[in-house]
Amino acid sequence: MKADRVRQASPPHTAKRFGWRRGLRAAATVMLLSSLAGCVFDAQELVLTKQQVEERTEYTSVPTAQAWVNAPNMRSVLERNLRIGLEQRISLANDTPVPGDNVMMLRTRNGVSGFGRLRFESLIANFGGLPQPFTGLSSGSLVQGDDGVGPYLWASQDVGDVTCILGMRRVNSGMRQLPGNGGIMDIIVRNCVLGSQQDALAPLLADSIGVAPIARDPQGNSRMLSPLAAPSGSVIAIPSGGSQ
To answer: Nearest to residue 227, comparing CAs of 213, 237, 242?
Structure first.
């Protein structure tokens, strides 16, 4: 009779023990599936192409005081994080009848040790194509200049009394401090002005890109500047060929 009572008493304890184990396994399964779901999402994000990342990443508006350069006549600044680097699009004042916007685009790339060469085609593609009045421009039409920060490339076009320039350059973290983890920063500018070529080139030159604004008045003009770094090297910009 004792044996019968023991056998009869055992099943409830055994069922309780196995029920606890089943609950533990179920919880572990849920945690594992959640983890795997996260891994799948991350993997999908990792395989996105550069173009897909750009299409899915929106700009946010930031104050002109947070611009990475001290370009004259800034009106607005948009910024976004493209994972491999950051981008700013700076709207410049345009007092001319030439179609299109005066705009400056700056794009960094993180942790680049071999700075390579600046490619005309890649930079124009990042800019969204050639703007007016430079739609027929080729890399062979660019002129190379140099200032206190390093070399730059540019072309000029006169439209009546208006002077337009399309300029580009690459700077690295040895030339000046760069935002984020940037190792290089590519810059392209389209600027049309009622003035000289030097006036039109101003956003691209050392006084603009070699310093950062500390404070600005409501019109976007700088009141106090802070040098970021003295020039310590240069990267020769090559119009075409080589790495991006």
So the answer is: 213
Number of structural domains (the chain) is: 1
Q: Does residue 5 form part of some domain?
A: no
Integer Cα distance of 109 and 184 in angstroms: 6
* CA–CA gap between residue 235 and residue 171 (Å, rounded): 7
Q: How far apart are CA 66 and CA 152, in angstroms?
A: 24
Which run of H or E residues covers position 175?
Answer: none
What pLDDT tens digit does each residue of the chain (244 aa) get? 555 554 555 555 555 555 556 665 666 665 655 554 554 444 445 566 656 666 678 999 999 999 999 999 999 999 999 988 999 999 999 999 999 999 999 999 998 655 567 888 988 988 889 999 999 999 999 999 999 889 999 999 999 999 999 999 999 888 888 998 899 999 999 999 999 999 999 999 999 998 554 333 444 443 333 333 333 333 334 444 444 4
Does residue 89 sit in helix, strand or coil?
strand
Instruction: Give domain status of residue 9, yes or no.
Output: no
Q: 3-state class of 19 per DSSP?
A: helix
Please report which residue ranges of the chain form alpha helices under DSSP H: 2-46, 50-56, 120-127, 197-201, 206-209
Cβ neighbourhood burial of 170 (10 Å; 0-12, 13-18, 19+): buried
Angle (nearest 5°) at CA 92 between 201 and 197: 20
- The range of the structural domain enclosing residue 171 comes to 70-210
